[in-house]
Amino acid sequence: MTQVIVDRGSWIEEAQRYLVGGVNSPVRAFRAVGREAIVVTKGQGALISDASRRTWIDCIMGWGALILGHAHPGVLRAVRRQTAGGVLFGLTNQAEAALAKAISEAMPSIEQVRFTPSGTEACMTAVRLARACTGRSKVLTFEGCYHGHSDGLLVKRSEGVPEAIAQETIVIPYNDLDALEEAFRRFGEQLACVLLEPVAANMGVVVPEAEFLRRLRELTRRHGVLLMFDEVVTGFRVAYGGAQTRLGVTPDLTVLGKIIGGGFPVGAIGGPRQLMQRLAPEGTVYHAGTFAGHPVAMVAGLTTLQLLQRRAPYERLEALAAQLADGIRDAAQRAGAAVEVNHLGSMLTVFFADQPVRRFQDAQRADPARFARFANGLADHGVLIPPSQFEAMFLSTAHTREHVERIVQAASKVFAQVGG
Ligand SMILES: Cc1ncc(COP(=O)(O)O)c(C=O)c1O
Description:
CATH superfamily of the domain at 73-310: Type I PLP-dependent aspartate aminotransferase-like (Major domain)
Bound molecules: pyridoxal-5'-phosphate
Mean pLDDT: 96
Strand order of the largest sheet: 4-10-9-8-7-5-6
Shape: globular
Order of helices and strands: HEEEHHEHEHEHEHEHEEHHHEEHHEEH
Structural class: alpha/beta
Distance between the termini: 53 Å
Number of helices: 14
CATH class of the domain at 73-310: Alpha Beta
CATH architecture of the domain at 73-310: 3-Layer(aba) Sandwich
Strand content: 5-15%
Number of strands: 14
CATH topology of the domain at 73-310: Aspartate Aminotransferase, domain 2
Radius of gyration: 21 Å
């Protein structure tokens, strides 16, 4: 019989015994900051609680998926309505087309959409699609960007990736024009696609330089290479129409996830009909999935996009993030702590670095020990941030100016302990 465990110690023990590392995704183990994993029992608005009723202002927000905060009543209502009518059909459901239409209306580069159960699968399939469309095999990616855990997109980051697959992926530094030119000189005619996070969130937040994106678009066009934006994080986050509308660069294919599932598992590939029609059953690029276009994820995502469109919270979110970034910078300066705060939209990273962070190498030079003391100190003062300097903090519409003030107050106390 399943035992109901009430005290926090037992929760953690049980998780450690039966789950690898006590988690189902490595960063959740908090190892980078040397802290015990948190076993969450509840999320409400901007707050999250654990089994021993400790509560934090949550700046992880489902790693960016929860732009409306935890347990948003509108999303919950839509989910209840759907679950009462059946949770899975394995057939086309009404909400799928409605969500695809909402995405297509938000992002002019997208005419058709294929949903998947995760961002990983969407990236993996998008690469297959690009290879089929171009008849080429190589993929250009950037250090510090993350595109899920398929073999070809994990090169040099995991054991178990065959050398033959690794050779098909070229990895160069982000925001590095010379490296970009060199990659196209050497491999331009062999590349199927360039895959990048148009605003990086997985080396901490790193904003692309305008000239880097402009040249990337130019080179991909000239060499017949598909430009693929991974907007799993940035889609409906940095603007309703994602980074592509905000930065004014139009990709050939887009990968989405997170926000478009309203907190449920999702991914998507979107692009012009002419490219998308290469996917089965119209074309011969295979993709399928029992849970693809899951009805509950579709209604949660659709409701989320409708609320975002109706309420247009982006200016307010941006102002909150600016308040947070400025507050943290001031607090660090007062304590004599050298930090670089990168932010765009409602995503933000505090790097313990004394030089601007423009690429992964810069992020790697930031001090992990001081970051760990900062993250742990904040947690002790009731603020939960991602337990790694290579992640982004996320704000949601449930966060208020008061929450941000509390985060800044906590940061002020902690900087004094972390030191300069
Ligand atoms: C930019 C980016 N792409 C792809 C993925 C993979 O998405 P998923 O975790 O849904 O497989 C992530 C996950 O964090 C991501 O941040």
